[in-house]
């Protein structure tokens, strides 16, 4: 008889919880469900987390760390132009979304919709994560601007934030439509139309 290995490591529980929340949503993922999936005794959850809110903060931190690790080879590849690296970072996220049959989406957007009005700590953590994403993109966009790949009069921080906001909206639409088409349109409009042809503007 095969027995499941018990998980006693906090990081393992965070990863299992992250996967569950991405699939089911935060409020629909009960502590009992996490404990069962992790195969740990009832009540052990609170040995690691003082509350479910603290658990939410932990899965956000894990998600951001995973995304930073995912993005690093893309954004650090100096053989590719800065604007192309921005494009490739979004295309990587879209590919992951397609691999999950247009489900799950982005934890930051999902929790933003579900939790921002109910937990100030979670809202602030999400805002910090999105600000970090914005900072990373704006750095690449500034390089693109210095190379005259995008217009000099663009506010790169505002552009970075708008890219993320537009991506999140397209992601939500793709989840509802069960099609990556809105995300592909996002790529097309920004990187094939809006941010090209500087000399014609």
Verbal overview:
There is one protein chain. The protein is mainly alpha-helical and 201 residues long. It has a single domain, classed as Tetracycline Repressor, domain 2 (Orthogonal Bundle). It contains nine helices and no strands. The N and C termini lie far apart (70 Å). The mean pLDDT is 92.
Give the strand tally.
0
Q: Compute the number of structural domains.
A: 1
| Euclidean distance between termini CA atoms | 70 Å
Tally the helices: what do you get? Answer: 9
Low-confidence stretches: none
The top level CATH class name: Mainly Alpha
Mean pLDDT score: 92
Largest sheet: none
What integer value in Å does the Rg equal? 19 Å
Secondary-structure arrangement, i.e. CATH architecture: Orthogonal Bundle
Percent of residues in β-strands: under 5%
User: How would you describe the shape?
Assistant: elongated
CATH superfamily: Tetracycline Repressor, domain 2
Helix fraction bin = over 70%
Domain HTH tetR-type: 7-67
DNA-binding region: 30-49
Pfam families: TetR_C_13, TetR_N
Protein name: Transcriptional regulator, TetR family
Give the structure's gist in a few sentences:
The protein has 201 residues and is an all-alpha fold.
């Amino acid at each position: 008889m095969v027995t499941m290995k018990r998980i006693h490591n906090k990081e393992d529980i965070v990863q299992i919880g992250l996967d569950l929340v991405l699939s089911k949503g935060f409020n629909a993922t009960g502590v009992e469900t996490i404990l069962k999936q992790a195969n740990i005794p009832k009540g052990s959850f609170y040995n690691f987390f003082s509350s479910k809110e603290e658990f939410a903060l932990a899965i956000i931190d894990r998600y951001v760390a995973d995304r930073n690790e995912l993005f690093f080879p893309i954004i650090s590849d100096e053989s590719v132009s800065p604007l192309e690296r921005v494009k490739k970072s979004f295309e990587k996220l879209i590919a992951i979304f397609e691999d999950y049959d247009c489900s799950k989406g982005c934890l930051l957007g999902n929790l933003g919709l579900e939790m921002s009005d109910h937990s100030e700590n979670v809202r602030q953590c999400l805002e910090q994560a999105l600000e970090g994403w914005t900072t990373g993109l704006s750095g690449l966009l500034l390089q693109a601007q210095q190379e005259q790949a995008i217009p000099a009069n663009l506010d790169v921080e505002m552009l970075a934030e708008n890219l993320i906001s537009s991506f999140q909206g397209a992601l939500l639409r793709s989840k509802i439509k069960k099609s990556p088409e809105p995300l592909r349109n996002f790529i097309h409009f920004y990187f094939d139309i809006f941010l090209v042809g500087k000399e014609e503007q």
